[in-house]
Structures are given as C-alpha cells and as structure tokens.
Amino acid sequence: MKNFLFKISIFLVLLFTSCSKDKASSDQINQLNAGANQFVFRYSGLPQKPINVFYNIPAGNRTNMPILLLFHGDERNAKEYRDIWITASNQYGFMVFAPEFTDADFPGGSSYIIGNVYQDGNYPTAQTLNNESVWTFSMIEPLFDYIKANSGSAALSYDMFGHSGGGQFVHRFVLLKPNARYNRAVAANSGWYTVPDGLASFPYGIMNCPITAISPNNYFSRKLYVTVGALDNNGSDPSLRHNTASDLQGLNRLDRANYFFSKSQTYANSVQATFNWQFHTVANSGHDAILMSNDAVNLLF
Q1: pTM for this predicted structure
Q2: Which residues share a beta bridge with 280?
Q3: What is the pLDDT of residues 92-110, one digit of tens each?
C-alpha cells in the first residue's frame, strides 16, 4: 500500500511539474497583448539605452501576420506614429511597432538618423568609426527577433516606414544593412540624404565609410520606396538642414528627393546593378506624416 501511494505521489509530482513547464512555455509565447500597447526593449549592444516600443497588434492569428516597423522624425514621437497606423493595422491585419529613440539617449542627428556609425556622424573620420555593435541601425534585427519571440509570429521578414528624420534612418539602414531581413522599406519626406553616387563622402555620400565595402547590387536590388509630398517644397523650414553639402542636393525636400533618386539610379546603371528602388510623389501633401502614412498603406498593403 505504501509503495502504491509512493508511486501515486511521484506521478502527481511529475504531472504537476509537466503542467508547470507547459504553463511556463505558453507564457513565453504571445506575451504581447492584442491591441495598442507598449514594451521596453533592451539591445545587448547598448544595454544602457533601453527603448520604448509602441505597438498595435490586431486580433486574429499572428503566425503569418505581416510586421511593420515605424520610425519617427526629429520630434521623437513614436507613440503618435503608432497611433496614425492603428486603423490601417486593424483593417488590413498587420502588426505595427514604433521604437522610440529619445533625444536623451540618442542626442542630435548623429546618434539617430545617421545611425551612430561614427562618434560624430557629421564629421566622420576613420579614427572615430564606432564598432558596428553600437550602431543604432544594429538594434533593428534584434528587435525583430524579440517581436517574433514574444508575439507568436513566424514571419521571415518585416517592412519599414520612416517619415522625415525616420525616412533618413530608413534609407541609410538600406545602404548600411543590405542583408537585413526587411522586405520593403519606405523613406518618406527625408530632409537630406546619403547619396550613393560614388562621389560625395559620408554622411552626404557613400565614400570614405563602411558602405564602400558593400557591393552596390546588395542595396540597389532591395525594395526601397523613396516618397515625398508634392508640396514639401518649403526651403525655409527651420528644421531643414542647410549647408554646402546638403544644398547640393536641392533647397527643399521635394528637390532633394528627386536628386537622391536620380543620382542613385544613374549610379546603379553605371555599375550595372539591379535597381529595384521606386520613386513616388504624393499629390496634395506637404511635410505631413498622416498623408504620407496613408500613401504608404496603399504601397504596402
């Protein structure tokens, strides 16, 4: 009898342990609740700089649900960008995640829109090139892995949309991280560009920086939409950079977008690279995050 009770107790312990393990495993899946919410992401390369990520996950099966990453501009207003995309996210059934790069942890343009590639991206030198592990661009792939692990997604790729300063982040990400798992990228209303024409030096061109070690076909063959509002032609916008190098690209965002795309296409042809970038002007839109987002919804979904 004692032997029988001992066996029963062992069975119950094993059963309870097994159920506990199953419960623990299930807790690791779908940790991100459906709806609009946020979480904190810590990248191992910059553990002292955790970022808030604002997201929206529609109801439904997440396994093959598309994932879109949103990149804010200089106002560092990731939550507002997430909010702009909630309706489309729910309507078309895709998840949106907007990481927030605060000015406190990622000050100025160098740390965010130029990707922290150099200690000061505006005045890069070979001696001040940062290790790739601390580039802001290097946070995106681990963030994608975190999203997959905590949402139940089996997605193999993600899409990207950046507006204004976020557009700058996105097009430089395409140039510097051509092997990343993004599917399509939209760079909207960028203020100025890193132009792949084989002439200008970084950050206004690709010379004298890590991009020169990358085959042009690697980034030109990826899907990048360069979009700009047809009315984003105010050269007096105080947030628009003006100096000799940036003004060579044009005096407003509309002209600079045209310059960037034209020079890129010419350079791709000269090096016989596959050119899969597209240019898109948005009628009746100036520097408007909502109208440019609505256009991106049509392009992507």
Answers
A1: 0.90
A2: 227
A3: 999 999 999 999 999 999 9
